[in-house]
Amino acid sequence: MSSVLAGLLQLVALIGALALVHIPFGTYMARVYSSEKHLRVEKWIYKGIGADPDAQMRWPAYLRGVLAFSAVSVLFLYLLQRLQGILPGSLGFDPVDPAQSFNTAVSFVTNTNWQSYYGEQTMGHVVQTAGLAVQNFVSAAVGMAVAVALVRGFARSRTGDLGNFWADLVRGTLRILVPVAAVAAVILVACGVIQNFSGIHEVGQFMGGSQQWNGGAVASQEAIKELGTNGGGYFNANSAHPFENPTPFTNLFEIFLILLVPFSLTRTFGVMVGSVRQGYAILAAMATIWLGFTALMMWTEFAHHGPALQAAGGAMEGKETRFGVGGSSIFAVATTLTSTGAVDSFHSSFTGLGGGITLLGMQLGEIAPGGTGSGLYGMLIMAVIAVFIAGLMVGRTPEYLGRKIGTREMKLAACYILITPALVLVLTAASVALPTPPHSMLNPGAHGFSEVLYAFTSASNNNGSAFAGLNANTDWFNTTTGLAMLLGRFLPMVFVLALAGSLAGQRPVPATAGTLRTEKPLFTGLLVGAILIVTGLTYFPALALGPLAEGLAS
Amino acid sequence: MNNSVTNTARLLGAGLRALLVLTLVTGVLYPLAVTGIAQGLFGDKANGSEVKADGRVVGSSLIGQSYDLPPKKGQETPEPDLKWFQGRPANGLGTNSLNTRYELLLSGATNLAADNKDLVQQVEEAKAAVVEDNSVPGHTVRPSDVPADAVTSSGSGLDPDISPRYAELQVPRVAERNHLSVARVRKLVDGHTEGRTLGFIGEPRVDVLGLNIALRELVAGS
């Protein structure tokens, strides 16, 4: 069997698995967020928090909950790193310095998991397990909570109530993420991912002498790292490291975990708004983009254009033998079209166009299928834009799911889609124009520019992967990427929740013969087109200077 | 004003308590439970899949190693010990990224771009070395025979595997250096070649450590 065919079959297997699982899992998630009952353990937790889980919140209150929880999380994670020297289980590592601690704290709380540090040389057991891994869970749960609040905005009418943030946070963590992650972690260990608390120790080698190993709760973190679309590796090599991703099967399984929640949430959306076909339309738009990007990536990586790859006879630089070009390409697209940012191969050494595809994937706003929660709300914002464009074409007030998309709604949606491009382009331009930041580039020419563009694209979209040649551990990059992550995460959430509040307060408009049918393929096509056009127009000049220049030259 | 300060403080307090409770669940109970199950059911794997030979641990079946001669004085990069099968090249070293020297605490890739001149040079030098090292009397390796994994660095710098093509290419050399017949060494490689999982997942591969352990046994027995 050829490698290309094997790659395609892996893609087919992935589609099959997701198609099978997303319906029951998505329906289950809808039930979790709609249920009136609280588990006993949840009641204890609410008592501990001091919150009434049945109190309905309007959008400002919901947002305050999100912001308060996230602010406390940043501070807690910052202090944990700064105090590493006196914590038990620190493996003798020093406290992390302030700029890097800030960057890392923000990075994990915003679901970005951008890493300017080397995991195996910087973070001890306590910071990894009680700090970073915890944020892998709760940052994902926060994203899902905000998405569910927006869905409630569409599902409810004549009320401003969007649910209770604390209940959504706790349920998302306890009933969805923890059980799935636990099962996934055990499967990963069964395949060879390590899970222990041993320190750095010497192990013998074949030729004599020894190599240094460090242990860690890797499988438990790996599972939620993929499931919560986080992406922060236990080790520097991330999912390329054999202790994180030991076999071809674990590679495919990790890709499945990355895509599981984002795709399934379309079902949750469909169930909660009372029309699963609306969910299918959104799912179809996500799947179209995902499959298109994966096909393009496989094509360019198997063709291996670029002088070094031509000389080598294949695009294997930065890729592991066991995954090969096919498995690595599928992973790279899945990780950049979601907000994951885990890597099983190094994007910087991909073909010029392959690197461009990973960049463009993030620049779409990570909505196909996107991050846990953030993918769904990002896609629903694009759906609002798409019905607006359709409305302009026929001269009708746009509607979506029985809600009028008026001036206020459009302003909020427009603000949402403008934030990340503004952050990416302004910060990239500043970094290239200033005298010292360009010193961080590893590669010369167009690729060096791509490294910087990639860094801010990844940070602002909360992805976290990198063209890792860039030395991002400088005060400039630690600070600016930290700000980009914060603003790129929380400003969009403000607009999403405001939009949700505005929609929930409306009186539904009955569908008429003139209403655009948003559950039909026509709408899916329009949505995909709107996404590609909006993103393409925004980023084309920047992409032309980086990956396109590199890709077309070779 | 006073009221809003109290409200903010109350909200932050709720946030902190929520974080602490969830840290207990996801940062303490969850990893401990997974560790307990992992150590109970899959102890070997949870501890790094150690491989023993002659009663001594010689590494992990998942982590690549280098098979080099002891470095001579003043030599920066040691030369490969051509008696043994060699893994993927370990000389790729980005200036500001971590390297591929098979050191477990230094995982990472070169991150060099496909059009980077340094990478082109590394690949060409690696290819020349592979051709030279593996050409034995009566068997000349052509540059076009060299597969990509033989001349490129992996993502982790710890890749335990090589492609079956690269293993096959090393057979005549290894046979000659160990005074074994080519057929016997080839049979060894075939026995250590793992196909795609279920026939389509991943790529066929040869675990270099396992192969070298078997080779050592074969040499000792002959």
Automatic annotation (TrEMBL), chain A:
Pfam family example for this protein? KdpA
Location in the cell: Cell membrane
The Swiss-Prot or TrEMBL record annotates one GO molecular function as: P-type potassium transmembrane transporter activity
* Record InterPro entries: KdpA
What family does the entry list? Belongs to the KdpA family.
Quaternary assembly: The system is composed of three essential subunits: KdpA, KdpB and KdpC.
Its protein name is Potassium-transporting ATPase potassium-binding subunit
